[in-house]
Amino acid sequence: MYKNGTAHNSRGLVQLALFSAIIIAMAMVPFLGYIPLGFMRATIIHIPVILGSVLLGPRKGAVLGGVFGLTSLVNNTVSPNVTSFVFTPFYSLGDVHGSWASLVIVLVPRILVGVLPYFVFKGLKRLLGSAPGKLTVSLGAAGFVGSMTNTLLVMNLIFVFFGESYGAAKGVAADAVYPFILSIIGLQGVPEAIVATIIVALVGRPLLRFASSKV
């Protein structure tokens, strides 16, 4: 019993390290995890966090989300753009400075990306069953929720903590900041969520089969 438990724990740590390495590689290799589009960086680095949440559970998923957040903190500190102050307290733009709120924005939503998909997947799996098609639906829903969790929380926290400064950095009038944020959610967040839905649904099933075969 003890040996089996030790082997299970060791396997879990190896899986956690593997997913963490994938996240770090995606964050550090240009165009892999953050795709620069000039006016924004499209994010796909949340996908291994979502997959890790489903496969490894919410605790390890939260760790992976934290790794995701830390890579974003590092990227926005060493390679900043005009709005990097919302993601790092170590960057300023004119009179606008990052603060403790930057740490909330860069970490809390990303940690939740590693938590919520697990419960969405488990809840839908319990409700729909484990037939292949229904499992695909549950995985896709977990991908969609995880991606939208990141987008909705990040963008709304930016508005709460840095709305006026963010608008000024983007050249947006104060009374148009939230409509501008909604446009980003629609134009960037929704396509990212659709991509996450498809990839998590397609990749999740073989990963689940592989994981169950190792139990």
TrEMBL record:
Transmembrane segments: 12-32, 38-56, 63-87, 99-121, 141-162, 177-204
Keyword match Transmembrane: yes
Residues making up the signal peptide according to the UniProt record: none
One Pfam family linked to the record: ECF_trnsprt
Keyword Transmembrane helix tagged: yes
InterPro entries documented for this protein: ECF_trnsprt_substrate-spec
UniProt entry keywords in alphabetical sequence: Membrane, Transmembrane, Transmembrane helix
Full protein name: ECF transporter S component
